[in-house]
Amino acid sequence: MLRRTDFKESDVQGFYSGPAGSLWELCMTEEIHSGGKATTEVLARAIGLKPGMHVLDVCSALGAPARHIARDFGVRVTGLDFTDAYNEEANRRTRAAGLDKSILFVRGNAMDMPFPAETFDVVWSQEAWCHVLDKDKLIAEAFRVLKPGGRLVSPTGLSPGRLPTPSSRR
Fold it and tell me: What is the pTM of this model?
């Protein structure tokens, strides 16, 4: 089977803005990861989220985990997603939940994050990094925007793509 790696921005935008994006939510709920809210809760407790922490949710989709951790753990969240339709919907749902003072969703590429170095206490993602083809760039960017002593958490398989080597991490 031929493995395609020449996807364009318009391919990604079209996929998630169309019926396939709606199907993801229908199958997985707005959490768009297995285990739903319960998994988000377990993860947040396991890494010790505390009020005032600033969390970057990479590949944030519709933003349900971000809303959950902002509301229940008192963290500030910046969601980063490449898909315009998901960012717009995530911001709309966040405003409707009254959490827009704690959460902002922005458009961006996980392999070229639009944030200064050492910005976040936690870089978080749930079951999304398997969709990013260049793992070296993804991991390097995650560590670049993470504060010293911060936590990187992504309970997901990282396939497809080559896993980063230890020398590519700081």
Answer: 0.78
How high is the pLDDT of residue 68? 95
Residue whose C-alpha is closest to residue 123's, from 84, 79, 86: 79
The domain total for the chain is 1
Adjacent-strand bridge partners of 103: 77
β-sheet with 54-58: strand ranges across: 103-107, 76-81, 54-58, 120-124, 146-153
Tokens coding 62: 């519709």
Burial degree of 96 (CB within 10 A; 0-12, 13-18, 19+): exposed
Is 3 domain-assigned? no
Domain range holding 106?
9-168
Q: Which residues contact 72 (CB under 8 A, 6 or more apart)?
A: 41, 44
